[in-house]
């Protein structure tokens, strides 16, 4: 579906958007092998029902959205938000190729502002977030989680994939963290303590798995209010 542009972005978001616009053509080549198995595991853990209303925040090029579409039937819905216009363009190309462009609603812009405005009346059974919280500052994470609490169904679930801040640091992880500080425009996902963040917002964890991605600890977490 043709994208809908969301609310105005801050300068920080604009820099991030430009970075992901540049990466959009190559993003799948860079990330698909690394992220595909994590996506499959997270979506399986979410136990998506055919009539679910699903939102993905930070949908990127749409690889997870396309997989989610395989679960959803006519009574459900699929919505994706991404900061990058060119990432959204990639989703459109994929969905047209799969002939499911009318099944996916897309919004381009700041996720918090879009959820507060264009999508403020929507309630979701499932919200999926993969490698997104790590590129936000703490204030933005708090804003996003507060609005998720307003828009997740009382029986709904949130699935999050994130790089986990942990004391058990091998040499690969130590190098990754140094690169994140030196070249944050390229290595932009900073490790976060997702357990503490979710606890501070009163989310309850249903299930989680910690897996190694090239030696980097990644947390797949399913939670609810």
Describe the 3D structure.
The chain contains 8 helices and 8 strands. Strand 2, helix 3 (63-69) and strand 3 form a beta-alpha-beta unit. With 225 residues, the protein is an alpha/beta fold. It has one domain (4-224): 3-Layer(aba) Sandwich (Rossmann fold), CATH 3.40.50.150. The protein has helices at 11-23, 27-46, 63-69, 85-97, 111-116, 138-151, 171-182, 194-200; strands spanning 4-5, 53-57, 77-82, 104-108, 124-130, 152-163, 204-213, 216-224. The chain has an 8-stranded mixed sheet. Helix content is 41%, strand content 25%.
Kindly estimate the percentage of residues that lie in beta strands according to DSSP. 15-25%
Number of DSSP helices? 8
DSSP strand tally: 8
Protein structure class:
alpha/beta
Tally of distinct domains: 1
TL;DR?
With 225 residues, the chain is α/β, with parallel strands linked by helices. It has helices at 11-23, 27-46, 63-69, 85-97, 111-116, 138-151, 171-182, 194-200, and strands at 4-5, 53-57, 77-82, 104-108, 124-130, 152-163, 204-213, 216-224.
Which properties best describe this structure?
225 residues, alpha/beta, Rossmann fold, eight-stranded mixed beta sheet, 25% strand, globular
Topology, element by element:
Elements: E1 4-5, H1 11-23, H2 27-46, E2 53-57, H3 63-69, E3 77-82, H4 85-97, E4 104-108, H5 111-116, E5 124-130, H6 138-151, E6 152-163, H7 171-182, H8 194-200, E7 204-213, E8 216-224
Parallel strand pairs: 1-4, 2-3, 2-5, 3-4, 5-6
Antiparallel strand pairs: 6-8, 7-8
């Amino acid at each position: 579906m043709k994208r809908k542009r969301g609310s105005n972005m801050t300068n920080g978001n604009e820099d991030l958007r430009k970075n992901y616009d540049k990466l959009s053509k190559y993003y799948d080549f860079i990330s698909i092998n690394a992220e595909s198995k994590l996506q499959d595991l997270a979506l399986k853990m979410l136990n998506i029902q055919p009539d679910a209303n699903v939102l993905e925040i930070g949908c990127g090029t749409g690889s997870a959205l396309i997989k989610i579409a395989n679960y959803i039937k006519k009574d459900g819905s699929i919505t994706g938000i991404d900061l990058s216009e060119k990432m959204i363009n990639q989703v459109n190309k994929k969905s047209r190729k799969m002939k499911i462009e009318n099944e996916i609603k897309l919004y381009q812009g700041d996720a918090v502002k879009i959820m507060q405005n264009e999508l403020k009346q929507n309630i979701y059974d499932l919200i999926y977030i993969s490698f997104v919280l790590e590129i936000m500052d703490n204030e933005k994470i708090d804003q996003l989680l507060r609005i998720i609490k307003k828009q997740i169904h009382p029986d709904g679930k949130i699935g999050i994939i994130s790089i986990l801040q942990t004391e058990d640091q091998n040499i690969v992880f130590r190098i990754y963290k140094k690169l994140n500080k030196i070249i944050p425009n390229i290595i932009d996902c900073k490790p976060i303590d997702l357990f503490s963040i979710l606890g501070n917002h009163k989310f309850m964890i249903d299930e989680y798995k910690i897996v190694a991605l090239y030696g980097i600890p990644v947390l797949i977490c399913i939670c609810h209010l």
